Structures are given as structure tokens and as C-alpha cells.
Amino acid sequence: MCRETHAVAVTGIGVISPLGRSLECFESTLLACRDALHPLSLFETGIEPAPIVAEIREPLEVESRFGFRLSRTDKLAVLASRDAMAQANPGSEELSLGGVCVSTTVGGLPEIEPQITLDPRAYYRKRKFSSLTSYQHGHVADAVSAYLGLRGPRLGISVACASGAMSIAIAAQMVLDGTVPFMLAGGSEALCPFTVSGFHALQALDPQACRPFDRNRGGLNLGEGAAMLVLETLPRARQRGAKIFAVLRGWGMTNDAFHPTAPHEEGLGLSESMVLAMKMAEVGPDDIGYVNGHGTGTYLNDMAEIKAYETAFRGRRGPIPVSSTKSYMGHNLAAAGALEAVVTILSLRTGALFPTLRLADPMESPVIDWLMGDVRRQPASWALSASAGFGGSNTSLLFGSE
Length: 402
Known about the structure:
By secondary structure, this protein is an alpha/beta fold. It has helices spanning 23-31, 72-88, 92-95, 120-127, 130-133, 139-148, 163-177, 193-201, 234-239, 268-281, 299-312, 326-329, 336-350; strands at 8-16, 38-39, 52-54, 99-103, 154-157, 183-189, 222-223, 225-233, 246-255, 290-292, 320-323, 352-353, 368-370, 376-377, 382-389, 393-400. The protein is built from 13 helices and 16 strands. Helix 7 (163-177) crosses helix 13. The protein is globular and about 65 Å long. The N and C termini lie close together (12 Å).
């Protein structure tokens, strides 16, 4: 069994996503195997036909606060954080001591208007200088801290598509070190004209709904959303009688040191992050019942990821169940690892293994049991979420039941 000293309890979960604006809606949509992929309608890109994305179409209402101009990314994070904190209810006496670790890649970038290039001074005079602060990545954590009254450590993480998972791992380590009594950690990302156009220029977008791990995959679909987790040591959570959704018992963070965009062909960094997570949790490949894969649907990523599983799970007695829930909600970039951590926790709690939607002709691998078709009812004691990103950043989170 894993030592209790390596155990971090998840006592609150907040989710704002195209699959639902609450944890309950998020779960029910996953169980129904419904996606949220539609043609982009939030803004114009000049791309025809409109790219397929997963967007939140309902208004995001957050009250104004003196000195703060909230970007769409900020609002997503604040709303998800409020839900997570309401569930965890850490107690008023320690509320102000909590820390925040939030990841994003775009921050307030979607709010930048073309007029800024014509006369920046006039633009800022008209919009007020509060608009300037929302562009930085750390502003998301600033907003969450201010709106919830958390005065502990504040961190903003931006390491591409592994950011959400890495924020959770870093926050968990801070909790274990005793730096802070609890941490609010996760990721937030809004759809942005710059990223949509950029991935289109890279020819990475699938013009149809994406099909991760399929031989005929055509790329990814972008998405938006936020997921925030309240983390505290397992003994502390038990002592105060908190509801425990799952226990984070291991994590691994690595870097390919290989290429600015392409993953290592053999998936070495990603496989090492999974091995490190299992080693920390003191479990082996045979103990893992489900892997929520990174699974973008791009040619290079899916190939490298399969090789990573073949290395990390070599010698396992049977194939490991794997799926990509980006087929439901697109690729949420810096929020992806956090949202997929929630999917992994829900799988443990419900005993449901969520299939990869539209997976019809899966890539061959002797170590992988591809989840496809309907939800499979197969309870697991351990489940792993794997995240990879541009620049070779990798993070794996290993969750277990209490």
C-alpha cells in the first residue's frame, strides 16, 4: 500500500465546461457519451468552413470587483473555483491561508482588440489600465485569489497542454511539504482567435469531429473550460470529516528536451512520467485499471503516446484500458489536464470507463485495450491521467480511492 505521507485528498471539484456547468452535468454528459463539438460561433476567424470546437454558449456572469477586469479565462476559473470551495468548505478560520495554482496558455489574450496596434496609448486610456493586467498568465490566479479571499501562495503555470495536470501536481507537493493547509489547483482556458488560427496554420485541426487513436484521425478540435480541485493532506481531510472524492497518490513530471512542438517519437518523456507516478504511489502496471490518455487526434501525438504506453506498461499481464475524452470536449489546452483529472476521478467513483467517441478503426497495440462504443462498467482501484504538451512537457497523475 502507498504510504499515507504521499496521499493528497481531493475534497472539492469545480467544473465549467461545454459538457456542463457543474460536476453533476459534466458526469451525466460523459455517461451519456455525448460530445459538445459544433462549428465555432463565439467569434470570426476568416476560416471557412468554421472550425469544429467545444465552446460554452451560456453567459458567464461574475460580479464586478474594484480594480479587476476579468477576461473570459478569468471568469471560467473564478466560477469553477467557487464551486470547488463550496464543496470542500475548508473552514473560515483557515480560508485565508489557502493557496492557488492555476494554469492557462492564453490568459486574457482573447480580449486583445486589433485597435491596440494602431495607438496603444489611446487604447489603454480608453479601456483603463486594468485591461493591461488581464493579459498576463498569472492574472487568472490573481483573480481567483481575490474573489475567494485566499492569501496563501499564488502561482500561474503555463507549460502548454500539460499545464493543468502540472498545476495539480505542484500544488499537491506544496500541500505535502506543509507549505500551505490546502491548495486550489487546476486550469482555465478560453477559446481564442489566435490559437484557433495558429492550429489551423499548423494544419492540426480536424475539419470534422475528432477521432483520437483512430487510423483515419484527422487532427484535433479545440475547446475551452475550467476545472479546479481543492487539495489537502489525507489525514487533515479525514480529521475534519471532509467528503473525499479521490486520493492523489502519485505524480510524475518530465520534459522531453527534444523539439519545440513535436513529441519525442518514442514517447520517452511521457512514459517516464507514468513510471514516476506509479513508483511514487508504490504500485505497478498491473494495478492500474484505466488510463485517461492525452489523445489529441494528431498523427505525431497519437503515435508517440502509444509507444509511451508500450514502454510504461511493458510486462503487464493484460492490456490496459485507454480512452481520450477530448473526443467529447475538444482539446482544452492548459485546462485539459485538469478537466481530464476530473474525468479520471469520476471513473473511479462510478466504475465507468468512458470510451473514445467515433473510434472505429483503432491503431494497433499489444498493450492497449481501446475503449470504444458504449461506457464499460469495470470498477478500478487506480486510474491514471496522462498529459503531454508542446515543448515536451509531460505530467501524469495517479488517483486511487480512499
